Fold each of these.
Amino acid sequence: MKKRQKRWTSQVRVWSGQSSPSATYNSDLNSTDLLTMLPLEVLEEVFLNVPPQQVVCVCRLVSQEWKEVVDSDSLWRKRCRREGYLLRDANTLPKDWRLFYFLCKNRRNLLKNPKADDKFNGWHLNGGDTWKIESVRVPHPDSTVQNCFVTSYRPCKKCQLIHLEKEGYSPAFMDDVQPDIVISDWYVPRGNFACKYKICVELLNQEKKTIEKFYPPPVVFQSWSVEQWNQMTHVFKNYGRGVRYIGFIHGGRDTEVWTGWYGIRVTNSSIEICPSVDSSL
């Protein structure tokens, strides 16, 4: 047991820059003494400079004192502040700062190829007179968006199915935490042609049966509509237990021309698992 404590103490000294891995110890000072001598403020500062997964999976197991520091709100609140994970409303605090930190850190778009940068890879296409990829006709609010998917005459749909466990969100996590699931999609008409936009996003259980659905009425554009980007957003909250998949379908059509690609344009779609939008960015 003393050898194990000595190894952990050695590692902390290396992380804090106090010694190198090859450093030797003063034989008059055992590892238990070293642990006792570290003030909690110093220990917290050391943990702030250790990779977060190691803090939870390694440092937390060393001693009761270390566990208390790792489990403290203070440590994770400081970590959030240092890494720029800020609250939307300073008066609404997270119930669990550690959970808030990891949700912010792992937040990412679960949809593949959302900006049409990799042709149609990641998407399942059906319906319509095929899709096409074009450069954006008008600048998108996100300057990194340079391409979009274009619909043709007759209803065009494309979809993705997100397997949450494969993305790192375990069934227990989804059931117990039920984090917000934030949906976003961008669409624009071709101004001189009438067109229609549609979206449907479903939270599905293990058998791929619907638990909750976002299915707003279609957005219809008449000929000579203003050609500007519009954003469709939705947040799934308090959706209950059992969510294992997310089904994303969107598309539309050109309602005037029989040939060519003059329908609705879509791009920069996203699905994100994140802290409550009531309290975070």
Amino acid sequence: MNKFWLITLGIIAGIVALSNIGSIFGLAVSLLIIYAGVHYYLRSLSTLAKVWWASVAVVGGISAISNVPALIGVAALVALWIIYRKWNGQNVSVVAVKESDPFTNFEQQWNKLSK
């Protein structure tokens, strides 16, 4: 891709990411509240505590739903990461490809057993 287009897309993605930074922070706090609610719900023993922590998780979920525009900001951050990788000439791959031999683990285990 031409450097001009990389710069143009990078500037646009940067502006979008910066404009959604508050929403991204709100989504992170909401996810933290959901995590805390579920964590303490699973650890609580009394019914009252389970109801309390479930309601905390529900409030966090409602808050997370209200921060849906943060997904646009997260997508812009991902686009910035991809543009950065292309600028440096690195391979852009979202899915990690494991190119190892499937029998490597078997051979290691066999060598341990045969010693």
Amino acid sequence: MLTLGLASTASAEDTQDSESWLPSLITETPQEGFQLAVKLSQKGVGTTQPDASVRKALRGAYAHDPDSLIAATQVIAIHFQTVAAANDYWREE
């Protein structure tokens, strides 16, 4: 499990759930791939800041900051590139 050097406080049950939420990067459509990219981004935030109350408290600080919103979309775009490559860009051959 990737911890990014953060102290791990996850229980065995949390670890099992975190390992099973992503069975594959393969999706049927590009839209499903984009939805997966968003989920990957959300999971990344949750991994980086596991305290939901802290995330909620910080939300107001970035919700109206254009630079923060652009950065968030860049993270999603990077994840979408990964998912698209895993799906051979949904080419039909």
Amino acid sequence: MPTLCPVGQSPPLFPLIECLDLGRELPPPSERFLLSNINFRVERGEVLGIVGPSGAGKSSLLRLINRLDEPTSGKVLLDGADTRTILPRELRRRIGMVMQRAYLFPGTVGENIAFGPRQHGESVSQDQIEAALAQVGLAGYASRSPATLSGGEGQRVAITRALMNQPEVLLLDEPTSALDEDAKRGIEDLLASLIRERGLTCLWVTHDLAQARAHADNLLVIKAGEVVAHGKPESVLDL
């Protein structure tokens, strides 16, 4: 029976992202679990930091959420709907992703920025491209080749490209780990600003505990493919 709500009140919203008993096992001959029995939820506007040692399964978790890999157990819900019921192209419009390195397409910076919306039949004007680039400190870069960009500039383009789809969720897979210290600080500050201004819902994988403490509302700690802690940074990091 559905839950009844008092007159004049809206029904409760689903969490934006929810993982239920989520797992992934490699096929034979390996038969190794990358992730097992993962359960957590992410509310709208929340930044969830995901931390843990190398090889713990953090990147594997993001790949399952965006269906770059498929789970062998459990499921991922996006606003209450099983992501397996959503067409992959539509899912990746609603769930954007930024990787450790900026994998930009051949062509120009502007063509990279316009790629997502044009895949969905939406027009993107030159003025819109220029405005988006100006917001991330790359005014005048639209006609440049990605091959001419520094690592930090490439990540700014990758972030802008992901956000042009107006995603409901942004997955960040260690977006500063491949950068030098100056570029790292610039990208971290840029992400913090964009998250704040847009009220973005993010899952942010990082090895940098200071970064996690500074920017995450809650932390998920993964070790050996399992969740070992979930809560506020000040409580989780002091364990």
